[in-house]
Amino acid sequence: MRGAVLYGPADVRFEERADPKIVEPTDAIIKVTATCVCGSDLWSYRGIQPVAEPTPFGHEYCGVVEEVGRAVTAVKPGQFVIGSFFASDNTCPHCRAGYHSSCQHRELVGGAQAALLRVPLADGTLVPTPGVPPDDLIPSLLTLSDVMGTGWFAADAADVRPGKTVVVVGDGAVGLLAVLSARQMGAERIIAMSRHPTRQTLAREFGATDIVTERGDQGAARVMELTHGVGADAVLECVGTQEAMMQAIRSTRPGGHIGYVGVPHGVALDGQELFFAHVRLHGGPAPVRRYLPELIRRTWEREINPGRVFDLTLPLDRVADGYRAMDERRAIKALLRP
Length: 338
Ligand SMILES: [Zn+2]
Hints:
Elements: E1 2-8, E2 11-16, E3 28-36, H1 41-45, E4 55-56, E5 61-68, E6 80-82, E7 86-87, H2 93-96, E8 107-108, E9 116-119, H3 122-125, E10 127-128, H4 138-143, H5 147-157, E11 165-169, H6 173-184, E12 189-193, H7 197-206, E13 210-212, H8 216-226, E14 232-237, H9 242-251, E15 252-260, H10 271-277, E16 280-283, H11 288-300, E17 312-315, H12 319-327, E18 334-337
Parallel strand pairs: 11-12, 11-14, 12-13, 14-15, 15-16, 17-18
Antiparallel strand pairs: 1-2, 1-4, 3-5, 3-9, 3-18, 5-6, 6-10, 7-8
Helix pairs in contact: 5-6, 5-11, 6-7, 8-9
The structure holds zinc ion.
C-alpha cells in the first residue's frame, strides 16, 4: 500500500509502505475510508517538533474493519468503526475514570494517512457506528476521531453549562468545534476569537454570538469589555502558544474554568499570576474515546454537523497539498480519501 511519510520540515511524501499486519492478538486492521491532516501535524511539518527519522503520519481515521486478532471480540470484519489517536484498553483505572488518553496501556495510533491502518487494543479503542454510514456522514464521523472529541473535551473540561459565557481562543478546526460543543452544552454567550472571515462565518454557524478579532492582551481586554469587567465563566484554549494561554487566563473570571487542549509549545506559567488569577485549569490530550458513543449518536441523528470544518477534500495521493494548504492557512482542514 501507499501512505504519507514525513521526512522533515515541509517534506511529506506519499510512498510505498509495507501493509500493516496483526502483531498482537488484540489488534485490528482497518481499511481507511477517510483520514485528514491535523493542526497538530503542523508542529512537525513546520519543524517546531522535529522528526528524528522518516515517520508515517496521520492519526485521525474511520473505516471498515478488515481483519482482527484472535483476542478481539467487540468488533468484527465489515463493521464501520471510529477510534481515537490514542489506543486504550477501556478497562484500566484511568479509562474507567474517563481518561482514556492516559490509559495505562495507551499506544499512539500513527500512520493513518494510508490505505490500511493497524489499531492496537481494538476492543477498547474502536467504536462501531450503527451501520454502514451514508457517504455524506463520513466527514462528520471522521472528526469524532480527534478534532470534534477534542473540542468537546475543551468545553467539558471548562464546565460549560446552560447560561454560561464562553470564550474560545483559536479558530482552527478544534476551536470551531469547541464553539459547536459549547452551543450543544447550552452556553448562552459564545465569544469566538478569530480574524479570518471564513472562519468567523463558520463560528457563527456553529453558535458563536460574538466575534473578537484582537489577540493576546488586547483580546483579553476586549473580552473584559464585553463582559462588563467580569470575565468569562469558561475559556476554551485551542492553540497551545504562550500568548493563547495567557489570553485564556486573563479572560477568565475568578472561579472560572479554562479547558486547554492546544498542545503546548513553549508555554510557561508564572506562579504568582496563576495564584491571583483564581482560575481552574483542566486540559490535556482529549480522552476522545470517552465521548465516541455519544458523539456518534448525535452525528448519526444529524443533530450536529462537525464535518463542516473540512473545506478541502483531496485524494490521499495529494496529501502533500493538504499539508501545504493548512500550513498556509488556505484551508481550515483537509480531508483525504484513499
Ligand atoms: Zn486504560
